[in-house]
Amino acid sequence: MSSFIEFQHVTFAYETEGEQPKPVLHDFSLSVEKGDFVAILGHNGCGKSTVAKLCNGIEIPQSGCVMVDGLDTKVEDNLLAIRQRVGIVFQNPDNQIVATIVEDDVAFGPENLGVEPKEIRRRVDEALKDVGMYDHRFAEPHKLSGGQKQRVAIAGIIAMQPACIVLDEPTAMLDPRGRKDVMKTVQMLNREFGITVLFITHYMDEAAKANRVIVMDKGSILLDGVPRDVFQQCDTLRKAGLDVPQATSLAQLLKQDGVSLPGKILTVEELAEQLAAVLH
Amino acid sequence: MLNDITIGQYYKTDSPVHRMDARMKLILTVLFIVIIFLCKNFFSLSVMFLLTAVSILLSKVPFRMFFKSLKPIVPIILITAVLNIFYIKKGMTLLSFWVITITTGGLYTAFFMAVRIICLIMASSLLTYTTVPTLLTDAIERLLSPLKVFHISVHTLAMMMTLALRFIPTLIEEIDRITNAQKARGADFESGKFLDRVRAMIPVLIPLFVSAFRRAYELSFAMTCRCYHGGDGRTRMKQMKFSAADFLALGVFLAALAGVIVLNYFFTALI
Question: A34: which residues sit within 8 A by CB, 6+ positions away?
């Protein structure tokens, strides 16, 4: 596996008039492997959305550089190629749908890339089938539920055939069912098509499904590893303003009281299993 | 209530007129307006009236829809009719009373004008009843694309129109949400004098504008992410193609044009 997106000592600050710019990211380095499923966790204002916007050159770092598939986001001529490789799905599905009919919206990306009409048709149909929205292809977006709209937005990105999808809190505005559907779709894209996923969220249970979890705080990386290891660091997580999965938290309390639970516990099922083993 | 907003006034059904190419419908509507202003007497006008009637029947759009679109125009029709009756003094005098003189010429002209306006409204409503707004903006973009020569970016204008149409339902939903939120905080929208009620809208309009700007900002990011870079090098999934029926309709309209010119020549002009 080779690294697909690489942040090299990135420093970034939003320009505000009259004020001294406060750096959001400071000497930030991160490398994401091709085909990986990485979750970025963090409290509000920790810079995780900025990471998303840096990934395809919507924002350019003040110092350091971001490389995507060997292309530097600072070079203007690279941008179209970079954006075709890295698609971003934003939080509010309403603000990223451009057309009044679902299939027209999915076609928007490939149309911008100048793809042949017949090929666009094929990609649109395929993308809609992949996210399970093919039956709604003639629907008007404002008549869909939040989860359905977000899946349409994802279809709009995969119709461009990117190698990587960055999702910036895609489930924050959705109901539990919509969240589940979106999560399932993203996992499927990662597993079946090998699309690299960078999933930004503040939901623990969603981050737990990733291969690698990165916890951010105040513009730098606090923890980085597989979910099972990261979530054992209860105190560090709480200091960063994050919750700990309930099962892990309970297991930790039980251990403090002298119950011997051997493994690293992440889900309710695992906890139940281990407790049953101890009690017998 | 919010789930059945239809954008524009598209009437959904399947008819030969609905299936026609939007570009041809646009061309024919413009052609229709030109021809109807060429009509000089009742014989040529009746050709256009017949053409309107046949098009409406073919469109399968119910008559009540057309009456609905005529309703706001009724005062205009009445005023022009009254003015024509009183001011045109031609032909036989029917009534002479004080300063008012009504002549047959005045009555004919009034009737002629009324029919002409009605036909105009019907024809343009037919276009919007049978064509989805986005297809219409699409058609405008394609028809006007030669204006590129004069450095007019038709694509940008069409994109703006499409986005405006797209966000109408979203913003209506937002108004509803903000209104409810302000009501919950005790805002009163129903009582008071007219000015009070206008003033009561301010707490709705300000959040609406703020949110509209935020939406525009986020939308521009999303569009950039989907490789939008203007109209250059852009392709379209849905290609527009003229069918045999489109050319047949064009033929009929051109025949009507020829008919109108011939009838104008052979019969005396009314106006």
Answer: A1, A2, A3, A4, A163, A194, A196
